[in-house]
Design goal:
- The radius of gyration is 21 Å and the shape is elongated.
- 68% of the residues lie in helices and 0% in strands.
- It has 3 domains: 64 residues, Leucine-rich Repeat Variant (Alpha Horseshoe); 93 residues, Alpha Horseshoe (Leucine-rich Repeat Variant); 61 residues, Leucine-rich Repeat Variant (Alpha Horseshoe).
- Helix 6 runs parallel beside helix 8.
- It is mainly alpha-helical.
């Protein structure tokens, strides 16, 4: 992007109109990270929460050496739980393994479920098997969305020995939990996974049964793909 365009965006970010600042952040999608991050930093302390939130998210997408420490600081110290949750989510986008410990601390120590949810999702994004114990604990959460995030994340980190714990959710009354389970089991190739998936493939909710069928096919479950084609 040429200098004139960058100067225009910089000017928009200093506008008194929050809509202009949001539009400026959106236009940074086409700007290389090294040029975008200094502009994003201008509005990290913006008075408008939507602007701050979008800026934090942008740091997870426009990755430079500056982004990781900024996001960790926001996750650990920002007074607004929405921003802490955004920072946790952005750390997942970075896929920087240094994010493991800050995300684990956030899950255990933050009192807001939204932050803990974002931390669980991002632990899955990191794909680090060390997250298994944290995510297994998350299965006991009173918040349904945290359970959903933990189930999905256990699949993403390929925690094969968590299948026993995951299989207890096949009869959950929440169809989204059953769907997340069906998707997660597609990454965990065990006999018990296939058995659970065959059960879920008969689920009354079409999104659950479809997810289970796709997972069975991806696992190459004996006879299943052939039976679906016959």
């Amino acid at each position: 992007m040429n200098q004139t365009s960058l100067e225009r965006i910089a000017g928009q970010l200093e506008s008194n109109n929050s809509r202009d600042r949001l539009l400026a952040l959106a236009s940074l999608r086409q700007v290389p990270a090294e040029e975008a991050v200094p502009l994003i930093k201008k509005v990290l302390d913006d008075e408008m929460l939507p602007v701050r939130s979008m800026a934090v998210f942008a740091l997870g997408v426009k990755q430079t050496d500056e982004c990781f420490p900024i996001l960790v600081k926001l996750l650990e110290t920002d007074p607004d739980y929405g921003i802490r949750a955004d920072a946790a989510g952005a750390l997942g986008y970075l896929r920087d393994q240094r994010g493991f410990e800050p995300l684990v601390r956030a899950f255990y120590e933050d009192t807001q479920w939204l932050v803990r949810f974002s931390a669980a999702v991002s632990l899955g994004n990191l794909g680090d098997i060390r997250a298994k114990q944290v995510l297994l604990k998350a299965l006991d959460s009173e918040e349904t969305v945290i359970k959903q995030a933990a189930i999905a994340a256990l699949g993403e980190i390929k925690a094969v020995d968590s299948v026993e714990a995951l299989a207890t959710f096949v009869g959950s009354q929440d169809w989204l939990i059953r769907q997340k389970l069906a998707e997660a089991l597609g990454n965990l190739n065990t006999d018990k996974s296939i058995s659970a998936l065959k059960f879920l493939a008969k689920d009354e909710h079409p999104q659950v049964s479809q997810a289970a069928a796709l997972s069975l096919q991806s696992l190459g479950a004996d006879g299943y793909s052939r039976s679906q084609k016959s």
